[in-house]
Amino acid sequence: MTDAETLFNAAYIRNLLEERRLTITNIQKARRIVLETDKEIIEAICLPAVAYDRDAVQTDGASDVVINILDRLHIERSKQRYDMTKLNAILDGKESEIEWLDAQVFSLPAMLQKTIIARFYDGLTNAETERKLYLGEDCAHRHVRKGIAIIVENYAHLCPPEVN
């Protein structure tokens, strides 16, 4: 792995650590998204749309309203299922990434592990981490750098080398 790739991977891992809590919160929120009920979709289809620019009611002029509503219901339901499938695939990937990161952090030597947990999982600054763990000045920064370097090395083993 080149120096540039190592620096990029270190920045990527650091970003994952920094955004971990927010990512978990967003995944939990997204998992609570549910499909609209058929009743909600039918109500949305049946209610005439208001044109905001002129406050006029727009209608589609369909003669067979029931068939039109059922067709639109089927189309809307298909779109929602497709969107939920895509969303779940993305969320599964993010969850796997967070689980891998957690496994890497918890496999670090004890002091590096404690420092990274205090720094990123608990959200403490370097100075607060040093006080909490009774470390000397700049030790938290060095421990974080070493921990991330170990995680980056493990990450590099996951990425296949490019074939030229």
Please give a quick description of this structure.
With 164 residues, the chain is mostly helical. The chain has helices at residues 3-31, 38-46, 65-106, 110-121, 126-132, 139-158, and strands spanning 49-51, 56-58.
Describe the structure.
This protein has 164 residues and is mainly alpha-helical. The chain folds into two domains: 33-95; 107-164. Helices cover 73% and strands 4% of the residues. It has helices at 3-31, 38-46, 65-106, 110-121, 126-132, 139-158, and strands at residues 49-51, 56-58.
What is this structure's SSE topology?
Blueprint: H1 3-31, H2 38-46, E1 49-51, E2 56-58, H3 65-106, H4 110-121, H5 126-132, H6 139-158
Antiparallel strand pairs: 1-2
Helix pairs in contact: 1-3, 1-6, 2-3, 4-6
Mean pLDDT: 81
Compute the gyration radius: what is it?
25 Å
Question: Describe the biggest sheet?
Answer: 2 strands, antiparallel
Give the total of beta strands.
2
The helix count comes to 6
Proportion of residues in β-strands: under 5%
Number of domains: 2
Shape: elongated
User: What's the N-to-C terminus distance?
Assistant: 14 Å
Structural class, judged by helices and strands? Answer: mainly alpha
Across the major sheet, the strand order is: 1-2
Quick tags:
4% strand, 164 residues, 73% helix, two-stranded antiparallel ribbon, mainly alpha
